[in-house]
From TrEMBL:
<comment type="function">
    <text>Catalyzes the attachment of proline to tRNA(Pro) in a two-step reaction: proline is first activated by ATP to form Pro-AMP and then transferred to the acceptor end of tRNA(Pro). As ProRS can inadvertently accommodate and process non-cognate amino acids such as alanine and cysteine, to avoid such errors it has two additional distinct editing activities against alanine. One activity is designated as 'pretransfer' editing and involves the tRNA(Pro)-independent hydrolysis of activated Ala-AMP.</text>
</comment>
<comment type="similarity">
    <text>Belongs to the class-II aminoacyl-tRNA synthetase family. ProS type 1 subfamily.</text>
</comment>
<keyword id="KW-0030">Aminoacyl-tRNA synthetase</keyword>
<dbReference type="InterPro" id="IPR044140">
    <property type="entry name" value="ProRS_anticodon_short"/>
</dbReference>
<keyword id="KW-0648">Protein biosynthesis</keyword>
<dbReference type="InterPro" id="IPR036754">
    <property type="entry name" value="YbaK/aa-tRNA-synt-asso_dom_sf"/>
</dbReference>
<dbReference type="InterPro" id="IPR002314">
    <property type="entry name" value="aa-tRNA-synt_IIb"/>
</dbReference>
<dbReference type="Pfam" id="PF03129">
    <property type="entry name" value="HGTP_anticodon"/>
</dbReference>
<dbReference type="InterPro" id="IPR023717">
    <property type="entry name" value="Pro-tRNA-Synthase_IIa_type1"/>
</dbReference>
<comment type="subunit">
    <text>Homodimer.</text>
</comment>
<dbReference type="GO" id="GO:0004827">
    <property type="term" value="F:proline-tRNA ligase activity"/>
</dbReference>
<dbReference type="InterPro" id="IPR004154">
    <property type="entry name" value="Anticodon-bd"/>
</dbReference>
<protein>
    <recommendedName>
        <fullName>Proline--tRNA ligase</fullName>
        <ecNumber>6.1.1.15</ecNumber>
    </recommendedName>
</protein>
<keyword id="KW-0547">Nucleotide-binding</keyword>
<dbReference type="InterPro" id="IPR002316">
    <property type="entry name" value="Pro-tRNA-ligase_IIa"/>
</dbReference>
<keyword id="KW-0436">Ligase</keyword>
<keyword id="KW-0067">ATP-binding</keyword>
Length: 567
């Protein structure tokens, strides 16, 4: 491709509204332009990278035995109503009506659509297992689109679905997809972790997220410093054991604590450690009120609360609800003398507190000398807190450390969540009707593009891994008005293109400094500069990633490029 004939609108300055490196560089290097909040045009360079990522995805999906199809982005509301997600999915689902007042959604995901397709065509166990996938634009009305294409309202996604007759078959399919994802992200040149995850609104069990390690990631990964264990912080179990103090119980005492509401304020005011305080948080769990207790130096993990009850919705009680149920403001909530209508559950760490401190459910008072097994009614002690750095790893090997990650892929064992709701059944080998057992597997293709840039850049621009670079070679005649440089550049361009290399020729009438700056921004792995020694048949070869450069005779150039890039 000749640079004068394509569309690469580079920028010298960093756009003011671009917060993260990938967004800044994609704008500056002429890869994307914003159309409206969270919606972008992918310009020619970005489109080439996306196609390379998609090709890697297709190759690995084919190896895993999946067949590609393409489903509509416009989905009728009736399918979502069958699954029960039309109202529960939330405001991120983009809804619209046609001229006949029929309701539709723009596809945020395609579980309902694929389930309806397969249930109408597959009736026997003999046609299972089945694996299908697509690469398609998705739509989600993000409340706060940010970080360029990392969190947009329109994005490119690969979604795959498997259908099985048995759980053993699902396990096999899940492992094939898991391996395919490891291969995909490795081939894209990413440093990533597969972490245990929560399935969220998708439903199902046994899920993993594929996280690209990055300081700007919105998710926290808890991982062992000595083993392969890794989990989203929401899902990491705590195996810490707590020693209970042998000190004698003291009497319960109500103490006035004016304007002392947080654990920090109360512990400082009463001169006790945070570990001695009991943090009490009122939740609404599927319309039922639950008071959750953790130690003062810990944080309540609402996902664990949700899993204790198998709930659909867990949310913090409002200040008004807290006042109505516990007769106090949130800063003074505690587990003593709580109505039987409110269930009290506690983290294991609370059971070890002797002579602790908690809210008195009366403003402005707290209790001291609190001993849970004597003073409160706790229905169960379970793991309810977020894991912390320094805690023992859940697999028993090493201690926990934290890292930030960008989610680029997610795999789920859906089970019969959708097939049961939508009556997607098959006849087993005994002629009995059974719900299909499903798996679901997604990759954010456009998000992967941005994640690659987040991990591969320097102060001058992008450092593309060879596998996904828009071009392999960037040929730059320094002065296109010089016949020798221009002609040699054209000859090299023709020869390398004919030999199967992807080549960008900078044939623009620009200053050398502009050409080199643009080349660094774009980040093509190998640059061939045709300069003053062109009449001697010598060019400069420079590696973008390392900055290493060589003077090479054009007679040896093909061998050198083959050495650097392969055939």
């Amino acid at each position: 491709m000749k640079q004068s004939m394509t569309f690469i609108p580079t920028l010298r300055e960093v756009p003011a509204d671009a917060e993260v490196k990938s967004h800044q560089l994609m704008l500056r290097a002429g890869f994307i332009r914003q159309n409206t909040s969270g919606v972008y045009s992918y310009l020619p360079l970005a489109h080439k990278v996306l196609k390379k990522i998609e090709q890697i995805v297709r190759e690995e999906m084919d190896k895993a035995g999946a067949s590609e199809l393409l489903m509509p982005a416009l989905q009728q509301s009736e399918l979502w109503q069958e699954s029960g997600r039309w109202y529960s999915y939330g405001p991120e689902l983009m809804r619209l009506k046609d001229r006949h007042n029929r309701e539709f959604a723009l596809g945020a995901t395609h579980e309902e659509m694929i389930t309806s397709l397969v249930r109408d065509e597959v009736k026997s166990y003999k046609r299972l297992p089945l694996a299908l996938y697509q690469i398609q634009t998705k739509f989600r009305d993000e409340k706060r689109p940010r970080f360029g294409v990392l969190r947009g309202r329109e994005f490119i996604m690969k979604d795959a679905y498997t259908f099985h007759a048995t759980n053993e078959s699902l396990d096999e399919g899940y492992q094939k997809m898991f391996t395919a994802y490891q291969n995909i992200f490795s081939r894209c040149g990413l440093d990533f972790r597969a972490v245990i995850a929560d399935s969220g609104a998708m439903g199902g069990t046994d899920t993993h997220e594929f996280m690209v390690l990055s300081d700007i990631g919105e998710d926290t990964i808890a991982y062992s410093d000595t083993s392969q264990y890794a989990a989203n912080i929401e899902m990491a179990p705590v195996i810490t054991t707590y020693e209970k103090s042998s000190e004698a119980f003291v009497d319960l005492k109500k103490i006035e604590t004016p304007n002392q509401k947080t654990i920090e304020e109360v512990s400082g005011f009463l001169e006790v450690s945070k570990e001695k305080c009991i943090k009490s948080v009122l939740f609404k769990v599927d319309e039922k009120f639950v008071l959750v207790l953790v130690r003062g130096d810990h944080e309540v993990n609402d996902i664990k609360v949700k899993n204790v009850y198998g709930a659909s919705v867990v949310e913090l009680a409002t200040a008004e609800e807290t006042k109505e149920v516990l007769h106090c403001t949130p800063g003074y909530v505690g587990p003593i003398n709580v109505s039987d209508q409110v269930e009290v559950i506690a983290d294991h760490g609370v059971a070890s507190i002797v002579n602790g401190v908690c809210g008195a459910n009366e403003e402005p008072f707290h209790y001291t000398g609190v001993n849970i097994d004597r003073d409160a009614k706790v229905s169960q002690f379970v793991d309810l807190r977020f894991i912390q750095e320094g805690d023992a790893s859940p697999d028993g090997e090493g201690t926990i450390k934290f890292a930030k990650g960008i989610e680029v892929g997610h795999v789920f064992k859906l089970g019969t969540r959708y097939s049961h709701a939508m009556n997607a059944t098959f006849l087993d080998e005994n002629g009995r009707s059974q719900p299909m057992i499903m798996g679901c597997y997604g990759i954010g293709v456009s998000r992967t593009l941005a994640a690659i840039i987040e991990q591969n850049n320097d102060e001058n621009g992008i450092l593309w891994p060879d596998s996904v670079s828009p071009f392999q070679l960037h040929i730059i005649p320094v002065n296109v008005k010089n016949d020798t440089q221009r002609d040699l550049g054209e000859t090299l361009y023709s020869n390398f293109s004919r030999n199967g290399y992807e080549v960008l020729l900078d044939d623009r009438q620009e200053r050398a400094g502009v050409k080199f700056a643009d080349s660094d921004l774009i980040g093509i792995p190998v640059r061939i500069t045709v300069g003053k020694k062109a009449d001697e048949g010598i060019v400069e070869v420079k590696l973008r990633k390392t900055g290493e450069s060589f003077e090479v005779s054009i007679n040896d150039l093909q061998v050198k490029i083959t050495e650097l890039l392969g055939n």
